[in-house]
């Protein structure tokens, strides 16, 4: 992680490091300018949840790990921001699941897809789809954001997406897929359309997901099925909203200056 010129003592050190990582990735043609703006929307919600992984994200991560381990054809979808912020963790996750990674870009150019593939391979990825082989289409999504690999997202039963667009999430659900979304905004269409929504920063959610997959990997299928049966995404999303609302109420009551949750950094 780079930290050029940012003193560690800065109260927003981690947030500044992430911004710098994204800008660096933009310089390398991995992130588009729109991705930088999307990150800003995420940062706002990260403030609201106290910049820490909360119970609703932990519960969703557990269900996500179970769904990925039970899947016939899980796929880990990677876009520019995900590559910039969590490439290494996503590669480890795919490895643990024996699943392919698929480069899937909203603002797609072949050049950017190839750059992301190169980054993933440099971190040890073995199967990277969606670059040379994005020959299939998600029905109902006009070119080129609907391009997918026939071996990957097209035939997947479970797809993990991060910082995804609501339209595409909806289209994947219409295809009958289980969609796991990592999205800091519990109000986004993606968060509401996904089957399992992890309301957390991708930089915290991916390592926790890797750890949880590792933990659950040896458990019997019955136990994983039980985790999924007991999971309720509406309850988790409602929990995220209630958490934010109660936290704001409390801060308004007790004074913002007293906020004990104003931690700054990946937990
Ligand atoms: P939708 O189309 O789903 O309603 P949107 O238009 O807000 O949502 P986009 O702009 O397509 O979504 O994508 C950005 C989304 O990713 C936002 O919901 C934002 O909160 C979320 N996001 C941004 N940065 C992060 C991050 N670091 N970790 C997790 N989520 C993030
Ligand atoms: Mg959108």
Note the topology.
Layout: H1 13-27, H2 33-48, H3 55-70, E1 74-78, H4 80-97, E2 101-103, H5 110-122, E3 128-129, E4 136-137, E5 147-148, E6 158-162, H6 166-174, E7 178-182, H7 189-193, E8 196-198, H8 202-216, H9 221-229, H10 233-254
Parallel strand pairs: 1-2, 1-6, 2-3, 6-7, 7-8
Antiparallel strand pairs: 4-5
Helix pairs in contact: 1-2, 1-4, 3-8, 3-9, 3-10, 4-5, 4-8
The structure holds adenosine-5'-triphosphate and magnesium ion.
In short:
The chain is an alpha/beta fold and 267 residues long. The chain has helices at residues 13-27, 33-48, 55-70, 80-97, 110-122, 166-174, 189-193, 202-216, 221-229, 233-254, and strands spanning 74-78, 101-103, 128-129, 136-137, 147-148, 158-162, 178-182, 196-198.
Structure description:
GO terms for molecular function: acid-amino acid ligase activity; ATP binding. This is 4-phosphopantoate--beta-alanine ligase. It is a single chain. The chain is an alpha/beta fold and 267 residues long. It has a domain of 180 residues: Rossmann fold, CATH 3.40.50. It has 10 helices and 8 strands. It is globular, with a radius of gyration of 18 Å. Bound molecules: adenosine-5'-triphosphate (ATP) and magnesium ion. Magnesium ion binds next to loops.
Short descriptors:
Rossmann fold, two-stranded antiparallel sheet, 10 helices, 52% helix, 10% strand, disordered C terminus, binds adenosine-5'-triphosphate, binds magnesium ion
CATH topology of the domain at 55-234: Rossmann fold
Examine the secondary-structure arrangement and name the CATH architecture of the domain at 55-234: 3-Layer(aba) Sandwich
The overall average pLDDT, rounded, is 93
- Estimated radius of gyration: 18 Å
> What spatial form do the alpha-carbon principal axes imply?
globular
Give the strand order of the largest sheet, numbering strands 1, 2, ... along the chain. 3-2-1-6-7-8
| CATH class type of the domain at 55-234 | Alpha Beta
- Number of DSSP helical runs: 10
Largest sheet: 6 strands, parallel
Classify the helix fraction into a percent range.
Answer: 40-55%
Binding site for ATP: 19, 41, 183-185, 189-190, 201-202
Catalytic activity: (R)-4-phosphopantoate + beta-alanine + ATP = (R)-4'-phosphopantothenate + AMP + diphosphate + H(+)
Organism: Pyrodictium delaneyi
Enzyme class: ligase
